[in-house]
Amino acid sequence: MNRRQFLSVSTAVAGSVAAGISVPGFAKDSGEKLKVLVLGGRDYFGPTLINALLQAGHSVTHFNRGFTNPELFQHLQWIRGDREVRDGSGLINLKQHLKQHNYDLVVDSWQKHPMFVPPIAKLLKGHIGQYHYVSSISAYKDKNTVHIDEDYPLVDLSDSTIEDRRHTYGRAKAWSETVLFEELGDKVTTFRSHGMRSDRTPNRIYEPYWPARFLEGGTIVLPKDDNHVMQVCDVKSMIAFMLHCQHKGLSGPFNVARDTMAFSDYVQEVEKVTQTPHQKVWVPKDFLAEQGVEPYRHLPLWRPQLAGFYHININKAKQAGLVNRSVVDMVTDQLAGYLRRNPKQDFMFGGVGTISRQKERQILNAWKNATIA
Ligand SMILES: NC(=O)c1ccc[n+]([C@@H]2O[C@H](COP(=O)([O-])OP(=O)(O)OC[C@H]3O[C@@H](n4cnc5c(N)ncnc54)[C@H](OP(=O)(O)O)[C@@H]3O)[C@@H](O)[C@H]2O)c1
Fold first, then answer.
1. CATH 1.25.40.20 is the classification of domain 31-193
2. Which residues sit opposite 323 in a β-bridge?
3. Whose CA is nearest to atom 47 of ligand 1?
4. Which residue, of 35, 89, 124, 290, is most buried by count of CB atoms within 10 Å of its CB?
5. Is the CB of 278 under 6 A from ligand 1?
6. What does the domain layout of the chain look like in residue ranges?
7. What's the 79 CA to ligand 1 centre distance in angstroms?
8. Model confidence over 315-363: pLDDT tens digits?
């Protein structure tokens, strides 16, 4: 698939959103139309969520400060507010609004300090049907065990208080979930997401390394490691599942991810999407280590150090109705976003979790010399 084809896929999706036509991966079982309040909504996860909600015919109000991507969703009802003002004055507009409005569903993607979760939960109490919180598998105490399910212990909170000045990402998620369940009980559903994949990036330093690498073609270095598996979360599938949970009235925590799959199978799916001529060179992990290439630190979707990281148990969500789209659909979305942001395909890999093209050539030369010798 070339750049034009990718962009035509994403334009078709945008057009369908406007026309209210169903697109695979978005909620299909929406009978009733919901009033949804999105806390946040304009950065990484939120826009895909809001588009899915609109496409399914729901009405959306978003609450944020108006700093991040203010050009998005200007046609929707917007409540300006700031959750991080300690005296609560940043919630005044929301408080006023709730005098006249109730919501079927609140979706909250908060990932900052957990001390700002209870005030908004208290304010919303009595005004909402369900509260969906976007959590993370980082909320678990570790990833050293395979098949971590929803009963696995979260990060230990006993040696901290919610007001502590700093929390690790995982501890902040664990605190946020804990206080939400305390405050709102079975109105809360938490979605413990694996690494998210969509057509957006959480920030400009993360671009989809493997899809972009295969799109470029040429000679590609891959890690050769026994039992190399991977697991990620497809954002559109997760959102469809969130709406399904709302329709079915499901609460409590859910791990959300795709099934664990062999990395080599993932590569085959990426190849189906990109179709650029290339040659794969599987370089043994020990040789890569000699070249200074470490799993995860320098190549993504490779993390043998944490035995359970790519073996998160998603049975509960699947039994409840999680249906994952194909890898081809997920990668197609990722590449559409990559090409929108980098129309010349000139993103400089080599930053966080990736190797540069120069480093890749260096490894290839070294490997060639080692195998000829
Ligand atoms: N990246 C991954 O692979 C991954 C994996 C697992 C889970 N997750 C989770 O997925 C979620 C992604 O969230 P996102 O940031 O993309 O969500 P988002 O809802 O798209 O964006 C965050 C929103 O929060 C608003 N906001 C920030 N500070 C605020 C404040 N003080 N008061 C009110 N609103 C405020 C921002 O707008 P303003 O700045 O205009 O206020 C923005 O609209 C996070 O919870 C993350 O932990 C991510």
1. no
2. none
3. 111
4. 124
5. no
6. 31-193, 209-232+261-312+326-372
7. 16
8. 999 999 999 999 999 999 999 999 999 999 999 999 999 999 999 999 9
pLDDT digits over 161-177, tens only?
999 999 999 999 999 99
User: Could you tell me if the CB of 84 is within 6 A of ligand 1?
Assistant: yes
CA 326 to chain centre: 16
Query: Which residue reads 């709102």 in tokens?
Result: 184
123 CB neighbour count, 10 Å cutoff: 15
136: Cβ below 6 Å to ligand 1? yes
Q: What is the 192 CA–ligand 1 centroid distance (Å)?
A: 15
Check if the beta carbon of residue 363 is closer than 8 Å to that of residue 283.
yes
Residue 168 neighbours by CB distance under 10 Å: 11
Instruction: Give, in order, the Cα–Cα distances in Å from 214 to each of 277, 294, 310, 345.
Output: 9, 20, 22, 12
Let me know how long the chain is. 373
Residue recorded with tokens 């190849």: 271
Ligand 1 atom with the shortest distance to the CA of 38: 19
